[in-house]
Each structure stands twice: as structure tokens, then as C-alpha cells.
Amino acid sequence: MRKIVLAAAIAGSALGLAACAEAETAAEDTMADAEAVAEEATAEAGEAMEEAGEAMEEAGEAVEEAADEAVEAAEEAMEEVAE
User: Fold this and answer.
1) How does DSSP classify residue 83?
2) How sure is the predictor about 23, in pLDDT bands with cuts at 50, 70 and 90?
3) Of the ranges 11-20, 22-31, 50-59, 62-71, which one carries the lowest mean pLDDT score?
4) What is the pLDDT of residue 36?
5) When comparing pLDDT for 24 and 81, which is higher?
6) DSSP 20-71
7) Dihedral sign of CA atoms 55, 61, 64, 65 in order
8) Distance (Å, rounded) from C-alpha 44 to C-alpha 73?
9) What is the DSSP letter of 1?
10) CA 66, CA 83: separation in Å to the nearest integer?
């Protein structure tokens, strides 16, 4: 009877260790997946920031060009009025 109880206890311990190992492996897999998602999101955010920076630069150039045109138009209007 002692041998059966001892064998059952050993089997229970072995199953418990196996379950812990599986849980640890699952946790490691989940962590790796989370890291991959975070890296992808960071890369996408970097690309979006770069595109936004380019758009801001283009908008700044457009505003500068429009301001120059407005100044030229105002100068021409002043010359017409002066004549």
C-alpha cells in the first residue's frame, strides 16, 4: 500500500512539474508575441512620424510661397495706387 501511495505522490508531483513547465512555455510564447507586436507598432509609429514631418515641411513651404505671393500682390497694388 505504501508503494502505491508513494507512486501516486511521485506521479502527482511529475504532473505538477509538467504543468508548470507548460505554463512557463506558454508565458514565454506570449511574451515573445507581445514583443513582436510592440516592435511592429514602434516601427509603424516611426514611419508615421516621418511622414507627418514631411507633410509639415511641405505645408511650411506652401505657406511661405503663399506669403511671398501675397507680398508681391500687395506691392503691385501699392504701385498701381501710387501711379
Assistant:
1) -
2) low
3) 11-20
4) 86
5) 81
6) HHHHHHHHHHHHHHHHHHHHHHHHHHHHHHHHHHHHHHHHHHHHHHHHHHHH
7) negative
8) 43
9) -
10) 26
What nine digits make up the cell of 40? 511592429
Cell of 64: 511661405
Q: Length of the chain in residues, anyone?
A: 83
- CA–CA separation, 61 vs 67, rounded Å? 10
Separation of alpha carbons 72 and 83, rounded Å? 17
The vertex-71 CA angle with 70 and 73, nearest 5°, equals 65
Among all chains, which residue has been given the C-alpha cell 501710387? Answer: 82
